[in-house]
Specification:
Layout: E1 2-5, E2 9-12, E3 42-45, E4 53-58, E5 61-63, E6 70-73, H1 75-94, E7 106-111, H2 116-127, E8 147-152, H3 155-168, E9 171-174, E10 191-193, H4 198-212, E11 216-222, H5 225-239, E12 244-251, H6 257-268, E13 275-279, H7 282-294, H8 297-300, E14 304-307, H9 315-318, H10 322-325, E15 329-333, H11 339-346, H12 358-369, H13 404-418, H14 430-435, H15 440-449, E16 452-455, E17 461-464, E18 474-481, E19 488-496, E20 500-502, E21 555-556, E22 559-560, H16 567-592, H17 600-616, H18 626-658, H19 662-665, H20 672-696, E23 701-706, E24 709-714, H21 720-726
Parallel strand pairs: 4-7, 4-8, 8-9, 9-10, 11-12, 11-13, 13-14, 14-15
Antiparallel strand pairs: 1-2, 3-7, 5-6, 15-18, 16-17, 18-19, 19-20, 21-22, 23-24
Subcellular location: Membrane
Main location: membrane
Protein name: Metabotropic glutamate receptor 7-like
């Protein structure tokens, strides 16, 4: 009935008539697991009016609680970019006189619900001519033969489109997929993107880290092609520039609060690491910030977060955890506000939905105005206020998503490219001209990939593809408090396009004041030399990799130095004087004081204990290491046990002398040797307790934030003082 080969793909004999279909039609919807909660799956405009149609694949909703259902709407990203796609088509159709040909587009946008399987199923069903699952009976969907190009969003959506469109040789453009793996032109032959790949973002991050002097960092990423590829590129670039990536943590796609807490806690246990580089999806970034908040004061303002383009300037990601994110440096792929789009979006209201499916519009309206529409197909019960229907959008108040501009660029580049196709430049009907082309889809791809467009039509910048991507650079942003108003904002520190240009002196760090992330002295710092292998998270440590680390502020040699306050000096002087006086008294009594009774040995034993108390104070001034922490824990109880055992025996002996017959009854126990052995026996009880504590909980040192700097402290930092008292 046909043939298949690598060159010409699948060919079916034209005389074969198929009387059956294998797509999920209306009657089979109840049995189709991909349909989930029966929400609208697509939006289309003018697809039957024009012979040239564009297809877009968006992540409008998150995945639901089960893999084949849809969750909440992504109002800031998904909805705005979907709307920008149709806005761009409307502008192209309205202003086609600016192009060299009379191009008119129809458009269809699919909602993947962040589900790769759903995206592939809908694309296959649509492009095979079988329509789309859950289509209302009688509702027409565009003819697949009229699709000339597609627009995708993230890496997952791009992969789904690639599987269907590459064999068909249809051009597809991503407005946000930055994964390095998508750069293989031998695999993705008809793929373009308006954004730079992650290897360039990694270069930008490394340059900023170098300028800030942060050469000891941790990387966290979502277990996805985007996250894994981004961190792979970062580790390679960091290793080439003497930056030590000491840990790498993966967050699985369905990561929970507990997973994030364990990750942040493990990072917090690493000495000297304060910078966390994050390549993660927005929900995982929010989980990490929440975990740092939940773990307590030592974590809330310790870390300097370095966020990739998925973080960018999103306020929704840091909402509720702004103080945790303060001091973060994020990278936003170059973007600009499109005022005309904001005006277009502000025209939306219940009486003017611009063709948006009713359930999508009602959900968007409820989220935007935090109200509940009881008659909507998707009621948002967490909002208590009822929607009046009189709410209105204000263009000035719309926070435009950074990828809106890229969605518009991608759509315009298709139109710009198709208007320059050879032999179609003066054609009044491009669709007829294209049908006559010997290599229709090859001509479309070549025209789009070599086109250029003056973005926003003024003096902003001219966009063109460089090595099939948009090398337009990054904006480097800093999360800081808004000095003029309450709240927080993203302040631009500069831009990066090949090199950083800006002023990093404007950088404002976290609330703790920490601005260092370096390997401390006397600590062996292991560095990942490259991406982890297929077997897991373990990477090879390069023993020759020795960055020139410097000790953290506040540490000189092996003693602490606190900028304000002289407690260490005062304690050292008093302890030294106390120890000196005790030694002088001990020698004086041994040489000149006559031994009048058997209890004199207890006096000397007590003086030894007092001497130990004074000397032990120096352990709290000395630089905390594992050994020093062990001395502190063991000797505190020991020195006081020596003192109190001598005092206890002295009191008991005084009580014995008061009894009439005790002088002869306890005579053998009142000799100097007996008193000494009993005192040692009582002290040994504390020795056993202290030894058991050291065995069960080995002493460790770590760092704690104090007055804006890191200072070494014995663990457990949150219970150490209480434990010393209890010992």
């Amino acid at each position: 009935i046909g043939s298949y080969n690598d060159t010409h793909s699948l060919k079916i004999r034209s005389d074969i008539t198929v009387s059956w279909q294998s797509s999920c039609g209306t009657n089979g919807c109840s049995e189709c697991p991909l349909l989930g909660n029966q929400q609208s799956r697509f939006m289309q405009t003018n697809t039957k009016t024009y012979d040239l149609n564009l297809l877009a694949v968006f992540h409008l909703h998150d995945m639901g609680t089960t893999p084949y259902t849809c969750g909440p709407m992504q109002v800031e990203s998904g909805f705005q970019n979907m709307l920008a796609f149709f806005y761009a088509i409307e502008q192209i159709n309205k202003d086609n006189n600016k192009l060299s040909t009379n191009i008119q587009f129809g458009g269809l946008a699919l909602d993947t619900c962040n589900n790769f399987v759903r995206a592939r199923a809908d694309l296959y069903s649509l492009m095979s001519g079988q329509g789309i699952c859950n289509v209302v009976q009688g509702q027409d969907v565009m003819n697949p033969a009229t699709v000339v190009a597609a627009i995708t969003t993230g890496t997952s959506e791009t992969r789904a489109v690639h599987d269907i469109f590459d064999p068909l040789r249809i051009t597809y453009i991503s407005q946000s997929a930055t994964a390095d793996a998508l750069s293989d032109i031998n695999v993705l032959k008809y793929f373009l993107r308006t954004v730079p790949p992650d290897r360039l973002q990694a270069k930008a991050m490394v340059e900023v880290l170098q300028k800030q002097g942060w050469n000891y960092v941790v990387a966290v990423h979502t277990d996805s092609e985007y996250g894994t590829g981004g961190v792979d590129a970062f580790i390679r670039e960091a290793g080439n520039n003497s930056i030590c990536v000491t840990q790498r943590h993966r967050l699985k796609q369905d990561a929970t609060d507990q997973d994030a807490r364990e990750t942040v806690k493990e990072i917090g246990e690493a000495i000297g690491v304060n910078v966390i580089v994050v390549f993660a999806n927005p929900s995982h970034i929010a989980l990490l910030l929440k975990a740092a908040n939940d773990l307590g004061e030592n974590y809330r303002s310790r870390f300097i977060w370095i966020g990739s383009d998925t973080w960018a300037d999103s306020m929704s990601i840091i909402q509720g955890f702004e103080a945790i994110a303060e001091g973060a440096i994020t990278f936003r792929i170059r973007s600009q506000t499109v005022d005309a789009f904001k005006t277009y979006m502000a025209q939306l209201h219940p009486g003017n939905t611009k063709g948006i499916p009713e359930d999508w519009f009602n959900e968007f309206w409820q989220h935007t105005f935090s109200c509940r529409n009881s008659s909507a197909a998707s009621v948002q019960p967490h909002y208590t206020r009822l929607c009046s229907g009189q709410e209105r959008l204000v263009a000035a108040n719309i926070a435009q998503h950074p990828y809106v501009l890229h969605t518009i660029i991608a759509t315009y580049m298709i139109a710009q490219g198709m208007s320059t196709i050879k032999d179609c430049g003066t054609s009044q009907d491009v669709s007829i001209c294209l049908a006559q082309q010997q290599d229709r889809y090859g001509a479309i791809f070549n025209a789009i990939s070599t086109a250029q467009w003056n973005v926003l039509g003024q003096s902003n910048f001219t966009f063109r593809f460089t090595e099939r991507h948009g090398d337009i650079g990054y904006q480097v942003l800093n999360v800081k408090k808004n000095e003029e108003q309450q709240g927080y904002l993203y302040q631009e520190l500069g831009t990066w396009k090949g090199e950083f240009q800006g002023d990093l002196t404007k950088y404002v760090g976290p609330g703790s004041g920490i601005t260092t992330s370096i390997c401390p002295p006397n600590v062996k710092c292991s560095c990942l030399t490259g991406p982890s292998g297929e077997g897991g998270d373990t990477s090879t440590v390069d023993p020759t990799f020795q960055p020139q680390y410097q000790p953290p502020p506040g540490i000189e040699d092996r003693f602490l130095s606190v900028k304000e306050g002289y407690w260490g000096l005062i304690i050292a002087i008093l302890s030294g004087l106390g120890a000196l006086v005790t030694l002088m008294l001990l020698f004086y009594l041994l040489c000149f004081y006559p031994v009048k009774s058997g209890t004199s040995v207890l006096g000397y034993y007590l003086l030894l204990g007092i001497l130990g108390v004074y000397v032990h104070n120096f352990a709290y001034i000395f630089y905390p290491t594992d050994v020093v922490c062990g001395i502190r824990r063991f000797c505190l109880g020991l020195t006081y046990a020596v003192c109190f055992s001598a005092l206890l025996l002295k009191v008991l002996n005084t009580w014995r002398i008061g009894e009439d017959d005790s002088l002869t009854k306890y005579k053998r126990l009142s000799s100097p040797l007996s008193f000494f052995l009993i005192a040692v026996a009582l002290t040994l009880i504390q020795v056993i307790i202290g030894t058991e504590w050291l065995i069960l909980v080995p002493p460790k040192s770590n760092y704690k934030i104090y007055e804006g700097q890191q200072y070494p402290r014995c663990e457990p930092t949150d219970f150490y003082d209480e434990a010393l008292i209890m010992s």
